[in-house]
Design goal:
The protein has 201 residues and is α+β, with helices and mostly antiparallel strands. It contains three helices and ten strands; from the N terminus they run H-E-E-E-E-H-E-E-E-E-E-H-E. The protein is 22% helix and 46% strand. Helix 2 runs antiparallel to helix 3.
């Protein structure tokens, strides 16, 4: 009786294995990103103007790790927060360790969705999102686009005002003020940028 039971079970097992072999499992691959433009990180940078003690203004810069514009007109820029350059080494270190906390947040990200056939050589408003230290905020910037010869330059037509309160950075800023022995550091900076793209062939 047990032998009679084993025979149908064996037949069923063989049939199941054959069915699995004849019906391969389908895998869904993520959509490949097709790039139109690649950011030239060596020629691109962010500049921001900070103010201390009421009227002392200082120019600072940040660089990019990567950036692109894809065929769906999505823009993505990755900012290297460790690249902060205030022209004073100890201040750069404090900005990395205290203000940006680059051990935990080494980068910031800018994303945007642009339209086809943007006007050249004239100011045009673009909405973008800045992700910084677990905060995400939307901004608008007026840009001027120059394009030709497989290259495209995007520059800010006017500075964008960014407040530390927008990203919860009041306490780090106050700590920097105390360490530097300053009367004040403005909680708002004026930001402009230069983006140099190369066409992907």
């Amino acid at each position: 009786m047990k032998a009679l039971i084993r025979i149908p079970l064996l037949i069923l097992s063989v049939w199941f294995l054959q069915a699995c072999q004849q019906t391969p499992v389908k895998t869904v691959k993520p959509k490949d990103i097709q790039l139109l433009w690649q950011l030239d990180t060596m020629k691109s940078q962010i500049n921001y103007l900070s103010t201390k003690n009421g009227d002392i203004r200082e120019h600072n810069t940040l660089r990019f790790i990567s950036g692109h514009i894809d065929t769906d007109k999505n823009v993505q820029l990755i900012i290297d927060l460790n690249s902060i350059n205030t022209h004073i080494d100890i201040r750069d270190q404090r900005m990395r360790e205290i203000f940006f906390e680059t051990n935990q947040y080494p980068t910031a990200k800018v994303t945007a969705q642009i339209e086809d056939n943007l006007p050249l050589m004239s100011a045009y408003p673009i909405n973008f999102t800045l992700n910084l230290k677990a905060h995400s905020r939307e901004f608008q910037s007026s840009v001027i686009i120059h394009s030709g010869g497989g290259e495209m330059m995007v520059t800010s037509a006017e500075p964008v005002s960014v407040s530390v309160a927008t990203f919860g950075l009041q306490k780090p800023l106050e700590k920097l003020r105390e360490i530097a022995g300053l009367n004040s550091i403005s909680p708002t900076v004026e930001v402009d940028f230069k983006l140099h793209f190369k066409q992907v062939k």
